[in-house]
Amino acid sequence: MLLTFRAKLVAIVATAGFAQLLMIFASAVIAARVEKQLDAVQRHYLPKIDLEPRLDATFERLWRGFEDAVAAHDAEALTATRLVHATFLDQLDAARGAIDPAAATRLKDAFEDYDHAAYDVSRRLLGDETGEAMVGAIAAMQAKQTRAQEVLREATAFDRRELSAAFVEATRAESSAKWYRLSIGLGCLIAVIGLSAWLGRDVLRSVDDLAVGLRRFGTGDFSHPVRVAGHDELADVARRANQMATSLERLGREHKRAEEKFRALLESAPDAMVIAGRDGRIALVNAETEKLFGYRRSDLVGAEAEVLLPERLRRRDGSNGADYFRDASAHAGGAPVELYGRRQNGAEFPIEISVSPIETDEGTLVSSAIRDITERKRIEAALKLSNRELEAFSYSVAHDLRAPLRAINGYAIALTEDFGDKLGGDARGYLDRIAASAERMGHLIDALLSLARVSRANMKREPVDLTHLARATIAQLRTIEPARVVEFIAADDLRTNGDSQLLRALLENLLGNAWKFTSKQAAAQIVFGCERPDSMAPVFYVRDNGAGFDMAYAEKLFAPFQRLHTSDEFPGTGIGLATVRRIVERHGGRIWAEGSTGNGAVFHFTFVDAKEAE
């Protein structure tokens, strides 16, 4: 007949009297302590092992559901996301015992906040809503999605050291239980030597096996499970411990596979990858790093990452290139930075470096992707030289054409003045056409020379008041055509850093175009303003309600001599917008246009603090 642990104790108490009652009480308290400790581990830690993957998978299903509904333009698919939403909240509610209540509340609030924003954005996109408000809503939704994912990771963070400490505590409790039982058993040994020896043999073996197993688990060794003997409470505790050990062993295998996958990806990267600790020492490199810098891997691992930089860039005052290997937080997410690398043989070469942080159990590491840009620099230098030669050639040709063109125009005028009464109607018409064509050619040459001067002129960066330049340009246009009634609206205090003369030419061309293409409007309006004025790269714009253009030909707007309207409709040379684009590019920025035929146009442009794009 199989007896439970409690049945055995009752038998001893029945035989030993008061002494055995004491043993039952003490053993029950100790067993409850052990069980409570392991139950706490099971309730608090075990559910947390796979909680993050489950919640993260459900969260991913939700936002992919929103994306699929929008991509398929399917309202029913959007409604189906409510089931995923309810599943996530059910999973979160079921895991309340494994997550700190405050963290669970934050996670729920962040999740609901994102879900509401994503559902609203998806609904609006299904309704074909566009515009700046829609762009802002999408950006806000993405920020809330990132926030929800961050809160999810924080709330479900799993610290294996706490679990190990809990197992150690359980081991200590079990060790104490063993010694208490032995002491009480010795006190009862005189009275119940035979019965206690027979009934206590299996109990002591189970306790010993459990203590040894828990001690082994506490050190991280899950290779051998605790032996389970019988069907009593200790056997149940042993089974629970084995279940937790199996889960932790599986987690360890997954972690190892993830690490192996990470190393494989690192080796397959096309760039040189250098992973360093916060102390600046290299922890890991790939084969491309050996190939690029000429070092062996064994020479780099453990060495200062600064060995890959020239002496002049190495850390001296904490403000140079070596900081990229130490602190990713200041540079993560930004544009790659161009520096110089140093090979083992001392040769220097240009590199491009991008950094990002990697969070590990041992702390934050800095991952650096390094690319050799020697060939790119050579091509850029050749391209700059070619551009300068082309600009010089264009300037020279345009300048040399002016003399013969003036001669053609002069002879045509002389023929008209001296022999006009002797020429027939057709001949006079031909001479007028020659003179008009020569005059137009002169305007084209002047425009070419202007474009060449924009490309060749030295730039002087200084603070520029764009609002003042715009208002002065409109005042000049009104002086030329005082009969025109044009409503001009300019935002106050629009400023930037750049060359004042070039920026004046930019606004003269853009506002002049707006003035010209609104000439057939009864209520003409021109607006000069700014989007995101407080950002690092504000976007300026010139908007009008004039003739507009077909967006299918938007790319032709900024090419020299490309016009979307005939000279009979609107006069011009086709050089103005090409000049505008060149001015913007020389300031390191970009320009683009939007419009529709008959509904006006808007030209957006932005500047970036950068070296001259010569």
Question: How is this structure best described in words?
Answer:
Helix 4 runs parallel beside helix 6 and helix 5 packs antiparallel against helix 6. The protein is 59% helix and 13% strand. The radius of gyration is 40 Å and the shape is elongated. The protein is α+β, with helices and mostly antiparallel strands and 614 residues long. The model is unreliable at 317-321 and 609-614 (pLDDT under 50). The strands form 3 sheets. Strands 2-1-5-4-3 form a 5-stranded antiparallel β-sheet. It has a 5-stranded mixed β-sheet with strand order 7-9-10-12-11, with helices on one face. Strands 6-8 form a two-stranded antiparallel sheet. It starts with a helix and ends in an 8-residue tail after the last strand. The protein has helices spanning 5-16, 18-44, 46-49, 51-72, 75-94, 101-126, 132-155, 160-218, 233-268, 287-293, 297-300, 374-419, 425-456, 466-480, 500-517, 576-586; strands at residues 272-276, 282-285, 337-342, 348-360, 363-372, 462-465, 486-490, 495-498, 524-531, 539-544, 590-595, 601-606. It has 16 helices and 12 strands. It has 5 domains: 5-45 and 160-253, no CATH class; 50-155, Up-down Bundle (de novo design (two linked rop proteins)), CATH 1.20.1440; 269-372, Beta-Lactamase (2-Layer Sandwich); 378-456, Helix Hairpins; 462-606, 2-Layer Sandwich (Heat Shock Protein 90), CATH 3.30.565.
